[in-house]
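Subject: Sanity check before I submit

Could someone independently write out the structure tokens for this chain? I want to compare against mine line by line before I put it in a report. The sequence has 341 residues.
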Amino acid sequence: MSARPSDAPRVSLLIPNRNNGPLLDLVLGRLAEHTTYPNVELVVVDDGSTDASRAILRRWRDSGPFSDFRLLEHEHAGAIEALNSGLREASGELVVQLDADASVQTPGWLERMVALFLTDARIGVLTAKVVYDWGEVQACGVDVIGPAGFHGRGTVVTEPVGRRTYHERVRRVREGDCDACAAPAEVDAGAGPCMMYRREVVLKVGGYDPGYAPVWFDDVDLALSIRRRGLKVFFVPDVRIVHHVGRRETAGPARRVLRAALPDRLRHRVAARLRVRPTAHAERLRHHYAYWRQKWGFDLLNPDMEELTARWGGTELCWRLDPEMRAAGEEIVAGFEAVPA
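---
Independent answer below. Compare away.
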């Protein structure tokens, strides 16, 4: 479908980047190919890259197919500061957070997301299907409010519920085997590789929380902050994003050995069985898990449901526990069917 100008609010595509030089031509090329929406700007914030990123981004800005490409070049301050800086500079009524190592694979994707977003004023966030470049599902939205705690929707927690220690200890499935991928649905939160929201609402909640710097969980936190204002979050299955984690240049020695020795799919299965966790991230994880509990009053991985509902019951955070809120979300999803694909 093509949005008429009167139906086409301005959209800002917001991409933070640091040292994704080897992927930028692929990511921007796919974005240019599949973005045909008539009222869009691209805002890229380079967070002090030390590779060839800035030269590549300048080339795309100066001679690429994007008619409105804003490049902000900053000293390294972290992805959250980059996101907040870009958010302040953006001019769109709607914003889509994208990742610099994730490519949009769906032609006309932005027309689709805008059309769905505008179907109901209760929509606060739309999030897409995110698939790793070795074919397994990263997330079809995010689950947070439940006994199993935080995990990508479409994955299965592999640690005992109530005794989880690491959010990546999950079993993933191939995209074609994922039941959660099949239909639009209300979800607790969105995933950062593709998440649409209203700029005005996010500015009112304070933007991306710097308490999660260096980056992790800021996207989930933002979606719940939007829910806290009485809005809802939905997963859109027919917008597909490929997250090129398998091609990152920042992997540690153990991951580089696995990368050299094994195909992507087998490598990641071996890593999951070995429960590989980068030791450099351990302190960050402890901080972020603790900060989440301090802010939200429940554990991210092992929520006490009585504690959680005592604090958030009756709000949109607990939508799935409330029949009326759940029915309202189902009504909105049913309205999606009337929007031409």
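---
OP: Matches mine. For the report I'm noting this point. The mean pLDDT is 91.
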